[in-house]
Amino acid sequence: MTAVAAPTSATDQRGQSAKALTFDGASQYLTNTTADFRSADSAGSMSAWIKWTGSAQSAVFSSADTATADYYFKWNILGSANNYVIYIAQKNNDTADEIKGSTPLNDSLWHLATVTSSGSAWKLYIDGVAETITLVAGANSGDWFADTPNRDNLNIGVTKTSAIGSYFNGTIADYKIWNRELSATEVATLYRMYNPKTSTGSLKKGLVGQWDMAQTSLMSSTVIKDKTPGSYNGTYTGTMTAAVDRHNQSNKSIDFDGSTNYMTISNFYNNLSITGNWSVSAWFKFDSVSSNQALFSSSASSSNRMQIYFNDGLDILSGSIYNGSVITSKSVSFTDTTSWHHTVFTNTNTTTTAYLDNILLTDTTQSMNAEATATTIVGASQAAAAKFSGKISDIKVYNRVLSTTEVAALYNSY
């Protein structure tokens, strides 16, 4: 699309710079002169992240006929005072069909707005939740691109019929169009993918340790903040190298060199007395795949420890759960140094369970608990051996067992 009057590059809903565009509400928009865009689509979906800062009707998207005001399909923000909501209007040289949603958007915050059509009715969603729809005019027809001929433009941030107007005031990111109706579950998943606070909000229960490994969480050059009220801050050994995380955000993970780097968390295990039910979650990316790399451990001796480690990369869980001897083994072909992966381990008094990238790998009818005097280490094992070579971010420890649904929520979250 062609930028008109130079919308400004902006930070998106995930805090990533230069991943969104801010429109001034006066002259800036994106446009394309494609005739009858997606004219074969009689059903479909559109979504966009929007942060609206306006005070009058604003167009998020439109496709129309510039010669008249009789053919258009547009998606606006419409309302008055403190009640500006999502609004859809379609006209095919007849009575316009118009509906609106129910959630006010004039709070200057990011929201995921989604509209879907089955071909016979529209649905509206804000932040993954279905809106209560009010009929404004005509009918809730669900008319889509195929039902709107004679269009000669498509635009983001403005409406262009016989007159141009409804300039968008705010920021837009990640605009998407589908040629089918998304289900409510798919819309909710879209929202969870990019909004950590909502997708992990139910996962605060029992969270006793969280180290996101971001540079913004440093308390000093060697101290990494625990983001829970327990304040079990980690002490980093070696030269700290900041790295990008799984969303390519700068300074959101730490690169462990496999030689001198590890993080020690004093008094964590013994103060909390985590025995029986617990869970550990972490994101990681290998720099090199070699034998005996510990991701997380709590141990007081080589004979009694809880430890999550990787053996030769090929048997990712062979010996990964350890309490003095191997208590579970699961062979997985794993030599990947290019992608981020998510692992979760849960433990009860009788069973230890392992997940990789939201896939249940193994259950074992044994339990894993460390001694009361255990030292907790990230990136190495007991006595700082078996050092990890790669990037680590977003480590969480719970004093309860996460369900498979909760494991999936962590994997699908920000």
From TrEMBL:
Its cofactor is Ca(2+). InterPro entries: ConA-like_dom_sf, Neuronal_Pentraxin_Related. Pfam families: Laminin_G_3. It comes from the Bacteria. One of its GO terms (molecular function) is metal ion binding. Coiled coil: none annotated. Keywords: Calcium, Disulfide bond, Metal-binding. This is Putative-Protein. It comes from Berkelbacteria bacterium GW2011_GWA2_38_9. The lineage of its organism: Bacteria, Candidatus Berkelbacteria.
